[in-house]
Amino acid sequence: MAFTDGLARLVLGITLPMFVPGYVFIAALFPRRDSLDGLERTALSFGLSLALVPLTALALNFTPWGIGPASVAVGLTVLVLVVAALAYQRRRDLAPGDRLAVNLSAALAVLRPRLTWGTVLGVALVLSAAGSVATAGYVLLTPKPPVTFTEFYLRQVQGVIETRPIKVAPGEQVSLVLGIANYEGRETSYWVDLEAPQQEAKRFAEASVAPGQAWETKTSFALDYLGDGQKVLFKLYRQGDTQPYRTLYLWVDVRSLA
Q: Which of 141, 170, 185 is the last residue of a domain?
């Protein structure tokens, strides 16, 4: 298992954005041990992290690296190291007895006093801030799956197809351009079936399209029977599809010109 998988990824992914940025800022702002108690320092660390993570991502959005799991992680790491160095320098300027230090006995003693409304509200604030930062960190650090789709379109050889029915004579060819644009992220094979009134469905076109590319072909069809409002269906299939992936249609009026 890779170091960035499983439990290790969960611990690092939560700890770095949820607590550490705010903690080092609070340590730099309040280096004296008596400036804040443990509960206040913890709650402020979560709350300040909630503000710092989106601001870091916003700043990265205006850089060549953009917003991504790697860039956000590196940006937060650099921010933490710089502010931690400042906090260390401010701590060195204080007398040893005034410096912020972790007192395990005092931390454990926090668990022993009688429960008060202040304690309950403080814990609720910490949990609320932790949940908010966890959500923000998950959204920022979890890769989003790419959106994939295929564009399927018809147009006349000159210009777009009008919405009103196309008027033709029996057997007259209707010329058009059939287009497929592939945004599936991989090369994809397609075929198009044509369904028209009083005709058997038939294979109308086939193509293999590279990712990010568009394919067009000039083609035509004809209807032999008189009647207005005849619906002509164009059904697009991808390799492996059993049902149409996209469907287009045209309305055609077939009238005798005599």
A: 141
Together in a domain, 99 and 165: no
* Structural tokens at position 181: 């644009």
Question: What's 95's DSSP letter?
Answer: -
pTM of the shown model: 0.47
Instruction: Identify which of 177, 163, 181 has the alpha carbon closest to the alpha carbon of residue 217.
Output: 177
**Tens of pLDDT along 115-163?**
555 555 555 655 665 565 556 556 655 666 778 899 999 888 776 666 6
Per the CB < 8 A criterion, the answer to whether 98 and 33 are in contact is: yes
Opening angle at CA 207, ends 205 and 208, nearest 5 = 165
Domain identity same for 18 and 120: yes
- DSSP string covering 148-189, please? -EEEEEEE-SSSPPPSSPEEE-TT-EEEEEEEEEEESSS-EE
